[in-house]
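Students often ask why we bother encoding 3D structure as a string. The short answer is that it lets us treat folding as translation between two languages. Here is a chain of 385 residues written in the first language.
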Amino acid sequence: MYTLVLSLVPIVLLLSALACAVVRSLSLRAGALDTDAMAGQEKMARRAIPNTGGIGIVMAILLPMLVVLGLSYLWSDEQSCPGFLLEHIELIRGVRSEAALGLWLIGSALLLHVLGLIDDRTPLGALGKLVIMLAPAILVAWPMDTRLLTMLDPIAGGPWLSMLVTVLWIVCVTNAMNFIDNMDGYAGGVAAIASGGFMVSALMQGQWFVAGVLALVCGASLGFLVWNFPPARLFMGDGGSLVLGFLLAFLTVRTTFVPESAGGEPFESGRWYALLMPLVVLGVPLYDFTSVTLIRLSQGKSPFKGDLQHFSHRLVKRGLSVRAAMGVIYCFTLLTAVAGVLLVRSDPTQAVLLGVLIVLVFGVMALLEYGSSNQSVRADQDTQP
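And here it is in the second language, the structure alphabet:
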């Protein structure tokens, strides 16, 4: 089963790259290019590049999901299942059992995709976008009953607290991925690495449906990166970043982070720190999201008005090229992804050591930003007459 899930990554990579190529060609003919900054917003210099790459990403993720869900109904018994797939019959039945959840997921992703496509053509207000983003998050937590920290229900006197935490998590991660779609290669590369880390964790827990969807997300992100790595020839736009953020948030809610071998609930087994795995893996986009929000608020600006103060922009301002900045960001994301995967299987002592490593990673990130900034300021002062 591991091979079957992992094989989805290169297959979907090729599908995504081809879909993005077609979308790019059609968008150039139709003039569907990146738009100017809206009033009060700052963007990098406008380039004549299509911002419709999200269409290729979403096609590469959702079409295989629909095909697999459809085939799971046709091949769920030994008589109808092709011989070469008989050894995977339990996996096929497992996919069929998750069909309702899969259709909810596809519907929610399409809603956000359409929202993003509209915003890419005619920029919408932040409040309107936020309200629409809340809809799929609430649907996940309530009718779909997919919630974080359900062990808090008895303490809170009901599911309201876990529902609230789940909605906030989904909205924050969706926005974080939308925020980091601000430089060539940024959102696509981070999504590929993060989804790869989550996929490994899901495979370790035997969660085949979740791992399979994460493989689709990883492959689609890598396929898009073929066209988006600096210098970009295609942007994903909100039509892609909102969907990637939502899928990563949703799939982390669905993933079990405490191994069955630990036994019991996370707090009872002493393995509560495994619940921090999504925060660790998504540390870089959440760091960017949090830091740029605080910077804007400290300047009296709306946190939802785009500008050039993201982590990626701050690295470039300190002398790195765009490619070098992406290399740094990819390395940090890979470090946090590996640390997060190891955290799931670690004992308490190992978890402490991983915690120290994670703190050091973010310490180096801060030092790279603010240490180099101070040196640049002093150098400028020393060269003044």
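Translate back mentally: The CA atoms of residues 3 and 192 lie 19 Å apart. Keep this in mind for the problem set.
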